[in-house]
Amino acid sequence: MTVNDAEKIRQRDVRVVQQVLDGDTDMYRELVERYRTRVFTVALRLVANRADAEDLTQAAFVAAYSALGRFDPSRSYYTWLMRIAVNKCKDHLKSHKRREAHLTGDILGPGALFTGRVGGPEQEVDQKQRLAFMSQALAAMDKKYSVPLVLKEVQGMSYKEMQEVLDLPLTTLKIRVVRARVQLQERMSCLIEPT
């Protein structure tokens, strides 16, 4: 997506928000359809449980809808929504004191860290196993590291967008992403037995 395309989407989002605020509540569906998969992907990677991720996705959209009057049209709706979604996930994890992964077995759905086709059945099994280990490792990581990593690597956010979502300095975000990559690699090497 080019910068121009991103700006067109941002402007369209602002118009849709205004239409919803003006009373055309059905227009909100456009925002839900545009961002549902992205929100779900982040939620799934953060809570590592499909049912919880679906609930949190819905909760994020409901919260965003309720707060539309506070949306700043000079900013990106996407990053504003992602901030709400990330906060919902963090609150969920705190309230349930979840520190370990809860694998759902459906890790090749939306949001898999690896994309693309695999070779034959053996490679597909290997990829599923690696994704299971990765989900487990991500879920066990401290959220101050896993959240920036998921936003950067899974969502493909720029650091500027991440700053809007997490309200952290650029340097802090870059350091956390680097540390998260190292932690993920270490956790993965502990989980995957050498062949």
Q: What's the short version?
A:
By secondary structure, the protein is mostly helical. Helices cover 71% and strands 0% of the residues.
Helix content: over 70%
Basic shape: globular
Oligomer: single chain
The tally of helices reads 8
Strand/helix succession:
HHHHHHHH
The largest sheet is: none
Number of β-strand runs: 0
End-to-end Cα distance: 39 Å
Mean pLDDT: 82
Low-confidence stretches: 98-119
Based on CA atoms alone, the radius of gyration comes out at 18 Å
Strand content: under 5%
SS-derived structural category? mainly alpha
What can you see in these coordinates?
It is a single chain. The protein is mainly alpha-helical. Helices cover about 70% and strands about 0% of the residues. The protein has 8 helices and no strands. The chain has helices at about 5-20, 30-45, 50-65, 75-95, 120-140, 145-155, 160-165, 170-190. Helix 2 crosses helix 6 (about 145-155). Mean pLDDT is about 80; it is low at about 100-120.
List the helices and strands and how they pair.
Blueprint: H1 3-21, H2 28-47, H3 50-66, H4 77-96, H5 121-140, H6 143-154, H7 159-166, H8 170-191
Helix pairs in contact: 2-3, 2-4, 2-6, 3-4, 4-7, 5-8, 6-8
Pick out its properties:
71% helix, 195 residues, mainly alpha
